[in-house]
From TrEMBL:
This is NAD(P)H-dependent oxidoreductase subunit E. [2Fe-2S] cluster binds at residues 78, 83, 120, 124. PROSITE patterns: COMPLEX1_24K. Binds 1 [2Fe-2S] cluster. Belongs to the complex I 24 kDa subunit family. Keywords: 2Fe-2S, Iron, Iron-sulfur, Metal-binding. InterPro entries: NADP_DH_HndA-like (IPR028431), NuoE-like (IPR002023), NuoE_dom (IPR042128), NuoE_N (IPR041921), Thioredoxin-like_sf (IPR036249).
Length: 161
């Protein structure tokens, strides 16, 4: 077993190789790897003696699981009805432009930011809503979204010094 699989092996051992604990196992694995790598999911399936399809099915069914790498900072913009009516599409397009995201791309090449468009953030009264690193920003404008991203970029640069 390579070092890459060691954390997953420990998580499986901590859960007594119990396939009924697949969701908590995947949660811990995602905490460790920051997403669910395909080879790790296959390893889990093999170790739990279940089909890879079952593991992939769970990983793709629940929205909180990620099967692709995510950036250090997660930006969620609501595109539900209330937010859409209040202009969230302009915020989304501005964030995509700011982060230089191409069509189909949701994470920046430097793995600093991931943009997620979500159906509801549960804050319709604050529409449009953006959440960045679990901080809710209500009545967000395209300009304010860029300002928030710029603050994070500046903070990252300062911390790198």
């Amino acid at each position: 077993m390579t070092d890459k699989f060691a954390p997953a092996a420990k998580i499986l051992k901590d859960h007594n190789y119990d396939s009924s604990k697949l969701i908590p196992i995947l949660q811990k694995v995602q905490d460790e790897y920051k997403y669910l790598p395909e080879d790790i999911m296959r390893f889990i399936a093999n170790e739990l003696d279940i089909s890879p399809a079952k593991v992939f099915g769970v990983a793709t069914f629940f929205a909180h699981f990620a099967i692709t790498p995510k950036g250090k900072h997660i930006i969620k913009v609501c595109n539900g009805t209330a937010c859409h009516v209040k202009g969230s599409s302009f915020v989304i397009n501005t964030v995509k432009d700011k982060l230089k995201l191409k069509d189909g791309q949701d994470t920046t090449e430097d793995m600093m930011f991931t943009l997620e468009c979500v159906s509801c953030l549960g804050a319709c009264g604050l529409a449009p809503v953006m959440v960045m690193d679990d901080v809710v920003h209500g009545q967000i404008t395209p300009a304010k979204a860029v300002e928030i991203i710029d603050e994070v970029i500046a903070s990252e640069a300062k911390n790198a010094d």
